[in-house]
Amino acid sequence: MAPWAGVELLALNPLRALWLALTAAFLLTLVLQLVPAGLVPGCALFQDLIRYGKTKREGPSRSAACRVFDVPKRYFSHFYIISVLWNGFLLWHLTQSLFLGVPFPYWLHGLLRILGAAQFQGSELALSAFLVLVFLWLHSLRRLFECFYVSVFSNAVIHVVQYCFGLVYYVLIGLTVLSQVPMDGRNGVVIHCNHRIPFGDWFEYVSSPNYLAELMIYISMAVTFGFHNLTWWLVVTYVFFSQALSALLSHKFYKSKFVSYPKHRKAFLPFLF
After folding, report:
1. Which residue among 116, 147, 191, 246 is buried most deeply as judged by most CB within 10 Å?
2. Nearest-10 Cα torsion for 150, 154, 158, 164
3. Torsion sign over Cα 130, 134, 137, 140
4. pLDDT tens, position by position, 13-23
5. For residue 1, what pLDDT is reported?
6. Do the beta carbons of residue 120 and residue 78 sit within 8 Å?
């Protein structure tokens, strides 16, 4: 790697600044949730924006004005439809570029440069990006299948801001992967909708193993990119704090709902948090 490439790895480009800002926002939100009630003034809108599904339904009472912005939680499937289509589109163009030498469309090339795409040579990084984009696409396809055939959404809701954020997230995550390519380089049956205390496997250690698994998926992508890739580690850091927040809210929900909830079980990280 050329000497100037190391400087580029640490430069704060627009994409890294965005992920850093999202990381800071979710970290602050997580810290506020850990502060004992009463020390920080409550805000109904703030709570409405960070909660969804069961944690929104069982959280603070909501005004009629807040309910106007409710969107069914089953719309989660839209996130993965967008991801499968958009990231599949990006994967197609990356495949064409890597193996057939076809250049990216002009508009996509320009967008990646604006976001701060890698400017140094490195064919191994291009291959890593290809593998990560394949993993991301397969992950989205699996989550879409789960939304249609596994998940039970009942009448749970999310805020319209959360819905819009989810749509933008899966567009942005694909662009983040593609930006790592050097620009100069080339059926379950529903029994009921009631909540029960789950046991077995990872549930013996954390309340929300699905959030922990999500983090591990993104860490595996980071390992594929290599430990030096600052941009993707910022993505991992964001995922860590956003999933930790959701896990904490779910953990509080279970503890409030079930008196016999296991005392040793943590929210997100086994034995730690």
Report:
1. 246
2. 50
3. negative
4. 899 999 999 99
5. 45
6. no
pLDDT value for 186: 45
Burial class from Cβ neighbours inside 10 Å (0-12, 13-18, 19+) for residue 196 reads exposed
Q: Tell me the DSSP string of the chain.
A: --HHHHHHHH---HHHHHHHHHHHHHHHHHHHHHSPTTSS---HHHHHHH--THHHHSSS---HHHHTTEEEGGGHHHHHHHHHHHHHHHHHHHHHHHHH-PPPPHHHHHHHHHHT---S--HHHHHHHHHHHHHHHHHHHHHHHHHHHT---TT-EEEHHHHHHHHHHHHHHHHHHHTTS-TTT--PPP---------SGGGGTBS-HHHHHHHHHHHHHHHHH-TT-HHHHHHHHHHHHHHHHHHHHHHHHHHHH-TT--TT-BSSSTTT-
CA distance 179 to 91: 12
Which amino acid, one-letter code, is at 45? L
pTM score of the predicted model: 0.83
Question: What b-and-e string marks burial along 30-48, b requiring 16 or more CB atoms within 10 Å of the CB?
Answer: beebeeeeeeeeeeeeebb
Cβ partners under 8 Å of residue 227, min gap 6: none
